Amino acid sequence: MLTLLAYLMIICFMAVIMTKKMSAFTALTTIPIVFAVIAIISGQAHLTGSTKGNIKILKALAGEGAKEVPKSMDIHMGDLGTLILEGIKSVSVTGIMLLFAILFFSTMLDAGLFDPITEKMVFFAKGDPKRVLMATAVVAAAVSLNGDGTTTTLICCSAFLPIYDRLGMKRMNLAVLVILQNTIMNLLPWGGPTARAMSVLDVGGDILTFLLPGMILSLAYMIFFVANRMGNQERKRLGVKELSDAELRELTVISDEETLAIRRPKNWAFNAILTVGLIAWLVAGSFIPAIEVPPAVLFLVATSVALLVNYPNLKDQGKRIGANGGDAVQVIILVFGAGVLMGLFNGTGMADAIANNLTTIIPKSLGGFWGIVVAIVSAPGTFFISNDGFYYGVMPALAKAGNEYGFDNMHMAVASLMGQAFHLLSPLVAFIYLLLRLTEVDMGEWQKEAGKYAIGIFVIFLGTSLILGTLTNGAWGIPFFIAPK
After folding, report:
1. Given this model, what pLDDT does residue 485 score?
2. pTM metric for this prediction
3. Using CA atoms, how far apart are residues 195 and 190, in angstroms rounded to an integer?
4. Which of 27, 133, 150, 191 could make an SS bond with 231 (beta carbons 3.0 to 4.6 A apart)?
């Protein structure tokens, strides 16, 4: 019964989003509450300490005075508030980081940091949308090295949106290229999903050896096929304009007096150093624990410094915060809405129910191809369930079954990451709402457009691993996802 409720909740949520019957925020909050109440009233809501996240929830439900954390607990109506708050707590750091990240890059945009980039790109493109799209793909991949989707979104949108708007290009293409390039680069060992797979299956950083061929081919696919195809379509629609230097310069001229008033061209070098330093610290912190600082703290400090240097006048600072705060709030309420969904989805036991269901519906006769099974399951698994829910809830059971079929944990870890091709299209991913907000594209249409290219990435990931094979227990096995003999 609880499994059915969980699937119905996911279907209902996706239906109202895709058909535009509800906004993302109202769907994220109201639908989970309705299904959580149904689960409690029907007596189906039951939570066990199967994952680290569940143990945290059980500890919160038991209260501060509890001598020990219960191993399991029935959920009652009075627990709803605690579950919702625990979910919000789980995304609170992301929300704080988003707040200051948006304020920082908005301040940089106001000060004119990206104006020279826009000008260079316009002159490079020379009225050719194809060049702009291929440049977008390259920059999105490079910026995604730090593994953070929020940073990638803010930097790429800040730099490229003015170009797209000036040339009349589709913002949808920008949104698709940014998310899919980030999808590929997110498989680096310091990226969220790979780090989870490594921790839960106890494998090392050498997992990159097995992932890198597919990542390189996928990046080439995105730059030379997807961006190239989009570029040809935009060329056909808009044409390639032969523009003189004067006409190109006219595209970059800012005539609005209010915009000119907040520009700070004299501070460009300082702002560039501050931004590059911030990004470098974010990336370096992934490799050097001694200098690692939470991204929320880095963005908080950087935002304060940026405001003090560019707008030392108190009134000017207030105006910049007020002007950019609205965009931040629009995104952050969606992040907290996702927290409500995850708190109730996990807290009522629905996430566990789906995890257990996935491990029982797969026939044991497919054991020799368990790697392929796990790879295929990981696609809907990481789309409909959070990465935490899939890797900490589903993968231990799938990996244990794989071990019995002759697969080691490295096989299982890599197989589980194949479905990441689709994960960032999930409404459970917080930063996509920032991307959708900045590009002003519809979620349903964006999922359809990005999804068709994500299939190509998934096929490359899976095909590369099947073709290349891997070293198993000191000897070459047959193709990667087929059990070694």
Report:
1. 44
2. 0.67
3. 6
4. 133
Q: At what angle do helices 314-347 and 52-62 cross, to 10 degrees?
A: 90
Out of 57-66, 210-219, 434-443, which region has the weakest mean confidence (pLDDT)? 57-66
Query: How much is the mean pLDDT over the chain?
Result: 82
Residue 365's contacts (CB-CB under 8 Å, 6 or more residues apart) are: none
Give the integer Cα–Cα distance in Å for 312 and 320: 11
One DSSP character per residue, 90-121 reads: HHHHHHHHHHHHHHHHHHHHHHTTTHHHHHHH
Residue 464 burial class via C-beta count within 10 angstroms: exposed 0-12, middle 13-18, buried 19 and up: buried
| Residues facing 471 on adjacent strands | 476
Q: Is the pLDDT of residue 459 over 90?
A: yes
CA distance 169 to 157: 13
3-class secondary structure per residue, 282-339: HHHHHHCHHHCCCHHHHHHHHHHHHHHHHCCCHHHHHHHHHHHHHHHHHHHHHHHHHH
How much of the chain exceeds pLDDT 70, in percent? Answer: 87
Cα(172)–Cα(151) distance, integer angstroms: 19
The neighbour count for residue 227, using CB atoms within 10 Å, is 26
Contacts of 319 (CB under 8 A, 6+ apart): 311
Phi-psi region of 45 (alpha: psi -120 to 50; beta: other; left: phi over 0): beta
